[in-house]
Design brief:
mainly alpha; 0% strand; single chain; rod-shaped
Length: 78
Amino acid sequence: MEKVHEDILTALGLLQFQDVARQQVEHVQTVLDQLAAHFAAVTEALREKHVMHAQRVTHDAVLGRATKADDRPTIELF
C-alpha cells in the first residue's frame, strides 16, 4: 500500500511539473506572438514614412515583399 501511495505521489509531482512547464511555454508563445505583431506594426509605420518610391522598393526588398505598381506617386520631386 505504501509503494502504491509513493507511486501516486510521484506521478502527481510529475504531472504538476509538466503543467508548470506547459504554462511557461504558453506564456513565452504569447509574448512572442505579441512581439511579432508589434514588429509588424512598427515595420508598416516606418514604411509609411518613406516619401520616395525608391525607399519603399528598398524597404519591401529587405522584407522580401514585392512593391505594388500603384505605390508610385504621380509626381516625385526627389
